[in-house]
Design a protein that fits this description.
alpha+beta, Immunoglobulin-like, Glutaredoxin, 13 helices, 41% helix, globular
Amino acid sequence: MLRKLYKWALLSICVVLAGCSNDNFTIEGVITDIGEHPIKASYVNEAGVQKVEVPTEGGRFLIEGTSTNYTMVQLFNFRNELITKVIMKNGDDLKLKGTLNHKYLIEMKGSEVNEDWNNFRRENHNFYSDENIESVNTKIEEYVAENGNKIASLALILFDYNNLDNSTKAHELLNSLDEKAIPASLIKAYSDIKALTKATKDDSRIYHSLQFYNQNDSLTSFMPLRGKMSLLYFADKDDDRKPIIATLDTLFYNYKNTPKGKSQLQIADIMLDNDTMSWKRTLRGEDTDWQHFWAVGGIMNPTVNEMLVTRTPYFIMLDSVGHTIYRGESIDSIMAIADARLIKMSEKEKAKARDKKEKEKEKKRKEKQRILNEKNRFNNKTAKLKTR
């Protein structure tokens, strides 16, 4: 007990000292139902993506980071499930308290922008918890109309407003904000909206290598030069993925290989959602064969920001050099481009590819069943031995 008190006393001293520094920011909190498990944080600063993991003592924790300008910091539990999002910059000292089971009711003090943003979430926690997107959007629109001078309004538009079917309205909300409510660092992901609307097939930028995290939580590179064409699908958990995945699956098997077996089309599914565990569960249920990545920081991720992606679902098609052939939201346009530029597999080849995939799925199913049967036999033998 004394040891724990001593450790927490040292932690408290660190908080006081850190709070006096303009070279960092601190987040001091208590998550009462997290036990002794660590808390993780990720954010983007001038040096790139930063990932932090800190221990807890009775749910208490201290996170220290650095960012000259405002940045969004995401907090995760030990299962990589999102706890909350906050906005920090050097000199900020934020205190929070709450539980994992009621993350939209977490209390925050010490930062006006976070208090404003968090109070909104607390007042509308039922809509957030029920994932009532339409109601959340309506409440955000009402809040922004009355609080156009607050940075919290910008945070709500960028990180909480679902603009899948409301991109025009989202732009209107952004344009309605006072200039002082738009810190350059937070609006950076949206700073090229006008350029984005002008970005066409003639986009002159070349993307040689794109870095994201894979399903093993390792930073890896996607290389457009490895295929004749590459399709990047930027997604979010709130998107209606099923029809998109079905279309991409058809596209992938139509144009995966040339008759000589060379790679024609690469597909990269890039998730912008905060919750990695939810993302991995989604992938397990889809059974697709292309590459899957996670962009830490969502639209604030440096690579995503560089590519001017501000909404989902969004598609970018690149040629083998890395030139942009298409960018936008139309999957029909992607299919048309593929038809014009790639060699389509014959019906016989497609049937063969489908059969191969089905055989692989059946093989996996049988292997899972075999392991389950062996486990059951072992448990039965163990139970019989115990009864003797």
